[in-house]
Amino acid sequence: MARTRVVTLPGRSLAGRPVALVLLAVVSVQFGGALAATLLPIVGVVGSVTLRLVLATAVLWLFVRPRLRGRSAADWSVVGLFAVALTTMNLAFYGSLARLPIGVAVTIEFLGPLALAAVLSRRVRDGAAVLAALLGVTLISGALTTPWAELDLVGILLAASAGACWAAYIVLSRRTGARFAGLDGIAICMALGAVVMLPVGLLTAGTDLWSADVLLRGLGIALLSSAVPYSLELLALRRLRSGTFGVLLSLEPAAAALAGLLVLGQVLSAPQLVGMVLVVTASIVVLGRPRAGEPLPDASPSGR
């Protein structure tokens, strides 16, 4: 975003500290997710996703004026699939937040991009790391200590589905980036999702969707989950190697657990924390290595 204002620190601008920018983006996304969890009981999953997409689109389009004319059918097909992946990912993830602690949901979801990176690398070490991550997710979900009948299988399935959509989002993000300059692709993608979700959101949430408290929370989610991390990552990825970015991205489950504790009062058990450490470690192994010929922006998780 060319018009993004950068906060200046004494002696050195924040833009000159890409690691700090990515860490701020990671924390911002997860606190946005925690704020979304407080909105779910009021307007539901569909209403929350609708607010997120509509308000985030409005904020993004203040800074981005995507070119719509002259696009080919192939361009619209790719960005349309991108919008489907983004919207479905948000619906599945918010659905999991209604049933699981945010730290658990994000850890399970994180298997999506982790598995994708391991498959693309085709290295035995990365495959072993994914197996370790699967063990971590087993501990996180409580499958070893909780009776099968008491497991929230729907929540686990929704989080896993969100992870699969996240992997699809990454693939389609690269294809969209090859066809649309700058942030045009994500701006159009979010607008398409917002247009589809708005009537559904109005139908399910009704007038609650436009109450002052709901709109304020929705705006906070749009800023924390979309506008702020987009801007921070865009600045950071101009100077940061993809391997370093991958390591920082791997801290998302831990950031989610922190956000869940501070915002929602959610406390994870010792086995769940061990499972989270396994997933974070596996992520660092898989995502922390630069990949030849891969553009830096491809590593970005923006859009969740």
UniProtKB/TrEMBL annotation:
Q: Where are the transmembrane segments?
A: 46-64, 76-94, 100-120, 127-148, 154-172, 181-202, 214-232, 244-264, 270-288
Where would I find the EamA domain in this sequence? 154-287
| Record-linked Pfam families | EamA
Please give the GO cellular component terms listed in this UniProt entry: membrane
Which keywords are on file for this protein? Membrane, Transmembrane, Transmembrane helix
The UniProt record lists the keyword Transmembrane? yes
Q: Which InterPro entries match?
A: EamA_dom (IPR000620), EmrE-like (IPR037185)
Give the family this protein belongs to, as stated in its UniProt record.
Belongs to the EamA transporter family.
| UniProt name for this protein | EamA domain-containing protein
